[in-house]
Amino acid sequence: MAPKHLSVGSSDVPPEEGKLRLYSMRFCPYAQRVHLALNAKKIPYDVVYVNLKQKPEWFLERFPLSKVPALVVNNTDLYESLVIADYLDEAYPGEKIFSQDPLQKAKDRILIEMFNKVSGLFYKIAYAGPSPDPSLLPDLFDAFDFFENELKTRGTPFFSGSKPGGVDYMIWPWCERFEAVRILGGAQFRVPKDRFPKMFEWNKGMIEDEVVKSFFVTPEQHAKFMQSVVAGSPDYDNIL
Amino acid sequence: MAPKHLSVGSSDVPPEEGKLRLYSMRFCPYAQRVHLALNAKKIPYDVVYVNLKQKPEWFLERFPLSKVPALVVNNTDLYESLVIADYLDEAYPGEKIFSQDPLQKAKDRILIEMFNKVSGLFYKIAYAGPSPDPSLLPDLFDAFDFFENELKTRGTPFFSGSKPGGVDYMIWPWCERFEAVRILGGAQFRVPKDRFPKMFEWNKGMIEDEVVKSFFVTPEQHAKFMQSVVAGSPDYDNIL
């Protein structure tokens, strides 16, 4: 693994024998989805972290989209976090993280698509400026209602059932970052526990999950990174 | 099947025994994806077309997203054209329209994702005003290069191989509409044949495909519909 985020003027790191290669950025929520899928499936991989503000020349040249996550499988480059996660679950042995029932799988994929509303609002709130913007909080909580109700309907502590699975891991990265917004913006950014009791229990369960722990960043570290992004010089290596 | 697009004040149509129910709009390219997948798989379904400008009350109430396509499977509502197409291919017997090889399937899904750039530009060009806007044509053709090269690399007449399949059907709806833009905007909107010889052959093959024919709209009809949209009163029933 490359110790720091590689930047302009760097060279790519030779791949490790018998491992998948993931190009990533430590604070990218989409990349985090792939780390969680790989860790949940216990698939051996090495990581090259990329400075997305000053992308290395070799990265721009090799990947036409120049996005992370990018997973290299036998010289084939795969993009798009959800496509990669599905691929890993289908192609690799071990416990499945997504439902094997086509209808349940479709419902879970729709749920993940609906989370795009949450992640879009989260981005606007968190990166509004030196302080988070509270004006979109009501919209964010409205979008959250769907997920609270869904946990109620499913009647299980996690969206995947009695333990976290693919659906949970695909929406987790943004949830991990909410507490950082509260640190930066104060008590008004606290998610109301009485309105979202199921999501609160879900959150507690997720933080205790070994897979989530395997790629966890504390709220304080997230807050520090967000501030550095807003200030124009992302501190990619703040925990490496 | 409901004969016309149902609108405010209408009632929903009772489902037909033994058929899936698809809520659709005749000119929606995303809904067209699902029609093509259903027709390719020869799955029995009935259609209720919905006036998206004046949505029926029952449609707004039943579907929280109020989007088409929506497919009803045993009282479960499925959204998102790609999720629905994948579901149909997995859950129903008959010839598979998507690759069964996980890596090829992932590559095909990435290709469909990359087509979002084409469809986004297409929308901006086609719906710019009474006449299409030529300023984004160079960007559109640049985005097209990827697909021309991909056909060259794959070495097959269709993205799915020797005959059209899921990938082809998922990107076709926007390609069907290009000729309508030329009708409305004139010769400058002609896709240059010398730059895209493979895509030209692909297009000819697609128009002759039975599945594509099963839900085809002529360029003249598309042009007429586009004009009605830009004028503010979409002529949904123009071919029903």
- Helix and strand content put the structural class of chain A at alpha+beta
Strand percentage of chain A, roughly? 5-15%
Strands of chain A, total number: 4
**Oligomeric nature of the chains:** homodimer
Give the CA-based shape of chain A: globular
Give the topology string of chain A: H per helix, E per strand: EHEHEEHHHHHHH
Low-confidence stretches of chain A: none
The CATH class of the largest domain in chain A: Mainly Alpha
Counted by DSSP, the helix tally of chain A is: 9
Cα(first) to Cα(last) distance of chain A is 11 Å
Using the coordinates shown, work out and report the CATH topology of the largest domain in chain A.
Answer: Glutathione S-transferase Yfyf (Class Pi), Chain A, domain 2
Strand order of the largest sheet of chain A: 2-1-3-4
| Mean pLDDT value of chain A | 95
Number of domains of chain A: 2
- Identify the most extensive interface between protein chains: A-B, 24 and 24 residues
Q: Please tell me the CATH architecture of the largest domain in chain A by its name.
A: Up-down Bundle
State the share of residues found in helices of chain A, binned by percent. 40-55%
Describe the biggest sheet of chain A? Answer: 4 strands, mixed
**What is the rounded Rg of chain A?**
18 Å
Domain GST N-terminal (chains A, B): 18-96
Protein name (chains A, B): Sepia
Organism (chains A, B): Limnogonus franciscanus
Family (chains A, B): Belongs to the GST superfamily. Omega family.
Please give a handful of descriptors for the protein shown:
2 domains, Glutaredoxin, 4 strands, glutathione dehydrogenase (ascorbate) activity (chains A, B), Thioredoxin-like_sf (chains A, B), GST_Omega/HSP26 (chains A, B), alpha+beta, 9 helices, 240 residues, Glutathione_S-Trfase_N (chains A, B), homodimer, globular, Glutathione S-transferase Yfyf (Class Pi), Chain A, domain 2
